[in-house]
Amino acid sequence: MPSLITGTPAGNVLTQEDLYLEGAPVIIIQDYNANLLNNPDADGYYWGMSGTSTYPAKIIGCVEDVSLTEGLTMNDVRCDTDGVKDTVQRRDYVEFNMTIKSLFPLSISTDFLNLSTATVGSDAEKVGIGGINNNKSYHVYAPKVYDEDTGDLLIFNLHKAKFVDAWTIETRYGDNWVISGVKLRAYADSTKPAAQKFGVIVRHDPSVL
Amino acid sequence: MKDVVADNPQTTKISTTVALQSLFPAQLKYIGLSGKEYRWEKAGDVVHVLEEDAPTLLSKKHIHRGCCGVYSDGNVLFQLYKEAVNA
Question: What does the radius of gyration of chain A's CA atoms come to, in whole angstroms?
Answer without folding.
Answer: 21
